[in-house]
Amino acid sequence: MRIKGIAFKSTVDFVQTFYPERFQEWINSMSEYAREYYINPIDISEWYPTSAFEESRKKLADLFHDSNYEASTKIVVRYGAEKAIKGIYKAFITIATTNFMIARAGNLLSAYYDDADINFLDHTSNFAIIRMNKYPCSDKIYEISLCTWIEVLLEKVGRTEIKIQKICSLADGDSYSEYHVSWI
């Protein structure tokens, strides 16, 4: 499975912004295989292997977030989502209703992951069901990323008291992942 280069670039930008003096330490902590993708120019529209991405994120968590993989993923994804929303998705956010964003979020997020199948099965004015039938792999980084993106999108369209409840998960061995999302 593959992931868009924008995810690699966002990770690099995060480390260079918050830990510039330790950037090279982070690069050197990766295997030679993963490091190659980070020391060469990253094309944000190209596809890259998920294994190199996962390794880079785990090393980031180890070095900068006390090996707390889940918290680290949320921090890095929030940074990237907020940056993207201020940039290329700004027009959507300024004119979109919550229902419009939720209805299209699966397509938006599927664009980051090759061969992903992310759907919003049901949504009302304050509730949605997210189903992931296929994801790049069973690593929880992708589910954490998806939930963080959804949370940021909802915040940006003015929603509050956002709650995301895991019902089942590919990362836990289930046949699909499902999350229930509510907001005010």
Describe the structure.
The protein is an alpha+beta fold and 184 residues long. It has 2 domains: 2-83; 95-182, H-NOX domain. It is built from 8 helices and 6 strands, in the order E-H-H-H-E-H-H-H-H-E-E-H-E-E. A hairpin with a 3-residue loop joins strand 3 and strand 4. Helix 3 packs across helix 4, helix 4 crosses helix 5 and helix 5 (69-86) packs across helix 8. The protein starts with a strand and ends with a strand. The mean pLDDT is 88.
Give the helix proportion (percent range).
Answer: 40-55%
Report the β-strand fraction as a percent range: 15-25%
SS content category: alpha+beta
* SSE sequence, one letter per element: EHHHEHHHHEEHEE
The count of domains is 2
Alpha carbon gyration radius: 16 Å
For the largest beta-sheet, the strand count, sense and barrel status come to:
4 strands, antiparallel
Query: What's the total count of β strands?
Result: 6
> What's the end-to-end separation, in Å?
36 Å
Low-pLDDT runs of 5+ residues are none
Strands of the largest sheet, in order across it? 3-4-6-5
Using the coordinates shown, work out and report the CATH topology of the largest domain: H-NOX domain
Name the CATH class of the largest domain.
Answer: Alpha Beta
CATH architecture verdict of the largest domain: Alpha-Beta Complex
